[in-house]
Design goal:
The protein is α/β, with parallel strands linked by helices. It folds into two domains: 5-74, Orthogonal Bundle (Helix Hairpins); 89-151, Transcription elongation factor, GreA/GreB, C-terminal domain (Chitinase A, domain 3, Roll). Helix content is 39%, strand content 24%. The chain has three helices and seven strands. The protein has helices at 9-37, 46-70, 121-126; strands at 5-7, 72-74, 89-93, 98-104, 115-117, 134-139, 142-151. The strands form two sheets. A five-stranded mixed sheet has the order 5-4-3-7-6. It is elongated.
Length: 152
């Protein structure tokens, strides 16, 4: 049975956009291969080899995205729930800093842009917690205690 892909609605839309862009890129790569074939001997044709490698990458990525989209389950934040769940944006405070993260599916995780996976050590530790609670989060850098300041 294929693995279910948990996503927010925004994450699903992003995957669909990536798929659309790759399908357009597929046409460009096919044209590159056609032009490179015209250069002659394929055994010593670096343009042809490069285009074929790109084609393999694009086709593989298209296949992966189609599978993820096909098996996607969109998880929306419950309006009445004050507990942290996928789709929640949570503001945390520790002794040094205050910061916010959106809890998302593993495929849309981007910590540098404030999106952490519900499956990450931090995301997993936060799921089910509420505003005002303190939580110890163990990461590869050690254990830190955070206070949950806000849940949206």
């Amino acid at each position: 049975m294929p693995k279910e892909t948990l996503l927010t609605q925004a994450g699903l839309e992003k995957l669909k956009l990536q798929l659309k862009e790759l399908k357009e890129r597929r046409k460009t790569v096919a044209e590159r291969i056609k032009i490179a074939r015209e250069y002659g001997d394929l055994s010593e044709n670096s343009e042809y080899d490069d285009a074929r490698n790109e084609q393999s990458f694009v086709e593989g990525k298209i296949q992966d995205l189609e599978e993820m989209i096909k098996n996607a389950r969109v998880v929306a934040k419950s309006a009445a729930n004050d507990k942290i769940e996928m789709g929640s944006t949570v503001t945390l405070k520790n002794a040094d800093d205050t910061f916010s993260y959106e809890i998302v599916g593993a495929n849309e995780s981007d910590p540098l842009h404030g999106k952490i996976s519900a499956e990450s050590p931090m995301g997993f530790s936060l799921i089910g917690k509420a505003k005002g609670e303190k939580v110890d989060i163990t990461t590869p850098n050690g254990t830190t205690t955070y206070e949950i300041v806000e849940v949206k």
